[in-house]
Design goal:
Number of helices: 14
Oligomer: single chain
Distance between the termini: 23 Å
Largest sheet: 4 strands, mixed
Number of strands: 10
Length: 374
C-alpha cells in the first residue's frame, strides 16, 4: 500500500513503476494522493511539531556525539551536523538522551497518525454523529477523543478524527477529482474500495458532509477545504467536529462565506494557525539554525521557503486544492513551487518526474536521523 512516511519525508508508491506515470492515470492519481500528504505535513500543525522536533533532536544528537554525551560549555558553538550524523551508525545512540527523546517524539507522532476503527455494539449510538471514546497509542492516552460513527457492511464503526484521518479524506478527494478530470469521469479506481471497513479512514468525513449538505453542493470540494482548514488548527479533530455541527441542518450554505464565518468564530481564537507558521519558521532558522554550520543554516532556510510558499498559497486561496479541474500540469506546478521529496516506486527511487526535478531541502538530514536514531 502506498504511504507517506513523515519521519523521513519520502513518498512511496511501491505497487507502480516510475514509467507508469507517463501512461497510467491510476499511477498518476496515486502519486497525487501521496504528494498531497507531503504538502499537508509542510503546512499543518502536526507538520510544524514534526519539523521543530526533528531539527531540535538532530542538533541535540550532534552535540551529544561531538562532546561524548555532554553539552558544550560554549552554547554559541556550531557543529557540522551532516558530518556528525554520517559518522554515526544504527544503534550508536541507544539509551542516550537524544535516543529517548526521539522515541518519545515517534510515539507522539504515532498518536496523531492513529487510524484504528472501533466496532460499535451499542444500539443507542447513532451513525453519522460524533462521540467521545478513549484513544491510546503506546503510552499516550486521551480518555475523550473525537470519533465519528459511520457504517460499513451492516455494522457501526467509530473512526478517530486524527490528523491521519483528516489527511486521508482530503487526499482521497483530490485524487478522485484528478481521476474524474483525466479519465474522464471514471473514478472506479478509488470508489471500488468503499465497501471495505478500512476505507472508512479515507471517506468517513466525506460521507458525513454528503449526508449533511444540500444535494446540489460539491461535497468533494467541501471535504478538501474543510479538512485543510482543520489541519491549520491545533486540534484538527475538534475543529472538524465544530464545523460539521455548524453545517448540520442548513438548507443553503456557501463554502466561501462559511469559511469566513469560521475564521471569525470565537471557537477558533488561539487555535487557528497556532502556533503561527511564521514563528515556526523563525525558530527553525533563528533558534536552531544558529547551532549548525552556515551552509547548513542556508539549506534550512531553503526548506522554510518551501513551507512559506505552500502556506501562503493555501491561506491566500482556501480553494487552492479544490479547483474545478485537477490536471497533471497543476500537479507539476505544485511540485515546482512546494518541492517534492524523492519518490520510491517499485523499480527504484526517482528524482525527476516528467521534467520536474524533485527536491526537498533537508531531506538527507531526515534520512540520516531516521537511520541512526532507531
Amino acid at each position: 500500500m502506498a504511504h507517506f512516511d513523515p519521519l523521513i519525508w519520502r513518498i512511496e508508491i511501491p505497487e507502480h513503476s516510475a514509467s507508469e506515470l507517463d501512461s497510467s492515470v491510476e499511477a498518476q492519481s496515486r502519486f497525487v494522493h501521496e504528494y498531497i500528504h507531503y504538502v499537508q505535513t509542510l503546512v499543518g500543525t502536526a507538520g510544524r511539531f514534526l519539523l521543530l522536533e526533528m531539527v531540535r533532536i538532530m542538533i541535540f544528537a550532534g552535540f551529544h556525539k561531538k562532546h561524548g554525551g555532554n553539552m558544550p560549555r560554549n552554547l554559541g558553538e556550531q557543529i557540522n551536523l551532516k558530518l556528525l550524523l554520517k559518522g554515526s551508525s544504527p544503534g550508536e545512540f541507544n539509551g542516550t538522551p537524544p535516543f529517548v527523546e526521539y522515541r518519545k517524539f515517534v510515539d507522539d507522532l504515532r498518536f496523531v497518525l492513529a487510524d484504528d476503527v472501533v466496532r460499535i455494539q451499542n444500539p443507542a449510538i447513532k451513525t453519522d454523529g460524533f462521540v467521545r471514546l478513549p484513544l491510546q497509542v503506546g503510552e499516550n492516552l486521551k480518555d475523550k477523543f473525537v470519533y465519528l460513527v459511520a457504517s460499513r457492511g451492516g455494522e457501526k464503526w467509530a473512526v478517530p478524527v486524527t490528523d491521519r484521518v483528516i489527511f486521508e479524506n482530503m487526499a482521497r478527494q483530490i485524487q478522485r477529482r484528478y481521476l474524474f478530470f483525466n479519465t474522464p469521469g471514471d473514478t472506479r479506481i478509488v470508489d471500488r474500495e468503499k465497501s471495505k471497513v478500512g476505507d472508512l479512514v479515507y471517506t468517513c468525513l466525506y460521507d458525513f458532509l454528503e449526508a449533511n449538505l444540500p444535494k446540489d453542493e460539491d461535497v468533494s470540494k467541501w471535504t478538501i477545504v474543510t479538512c485543510q482548514f482543520a489541519l491549520l488548527c491545533r486540534y484538527p479533530g475538534l475543529a472538524f467536529e465544530y464545523m460539521a455541527k455548524r453545517l448540520a441542518g442548513r438548507k443553503f450554505v456557501d463554502l466561501q462565506s462559511f469559511l469566513e464565518e469560521m475564521r471569525k468564530d470565537s471557537f477558533f481564537d488561539g487555535q487557528y494557525d497556532e502556533p503561527p507558521l511564521q514563528k515556526t519558521v523563525n525558530d527553525l532558522v533563528g533558534k536552531w539554525g544558529t547551532a549548525i554550520s552556515l551552509n547548513e543554516n542556508w539549506e534550512l532556510k531553503k526548506l522554510t521557503e518551501k513551507i512559506a510558499n505552500a502556506y501562503n498559497s493555501i491561506i491566500g486561496d482556501p480553494m487552492f486544492f479544490a479547483s474545478p479541474l485537477v490536471l497533471w500540469k497543476d500537479v507539476r506546478g505544485w511540485m515546482g513551487k512546494f518541492g517534492c521529496p524523492p519518490v520510491q516506486f517499485s523499480d527504484g527511487l526517482v528524482w525527476n518526474i516528467q521534467g520536474v526535478d524533485l527536491s526537498m531541502p533537508w531531506h538527507e538530514y531526515f534520512e540520516l536521523a531516521g537511520s541512526v536514531l532507531v
